[in-house]
Amino acid sequence: MPDLTLWEELEMAANLCREIAAQTSGAPWRANGHNVDGPAGPVATAYQCYADAAWIAICDPGLAVPLADILERALLIREREVRAQDAGDYHAGCDGIVGEDCDCFEPAVAAAQYVLKKATGRG
Ligand SMILES: [Zn+2]
Questions:
Q1: How remote is the CA of residue 29 from the centroid of ligand 1, in Å?
Q2: Which residue ranges make up each domain of the chain?
């Protein structure tokens, strides 16, 4: 994957969340012991422990749209409040340079980078 800006990472991750979730079986998924069940039947079996099944159920396709919305909200805030300057991307919301003294986007970017890593098989 080519080097992406953090803004491109946010956009790509949001798109991946929506695209991949749209291809999954229906939600909600529910933990049932070691199994994860969906409306149409079993989705997965977590062989290690019940908590794995519970976590998979939490991260069912129903989480994809709200997560994509969070990532896209960060992009909207960027559009409204961030301006490129010689020193970097200036964020008027905190009077800081993104990635230096502005950490406003870090949680969304961390989530986006995690989605990209998982979606590309790098993590
Ligand atoms: Zn900021």
A1: 36
A2: 1-24+62-123, 26-59
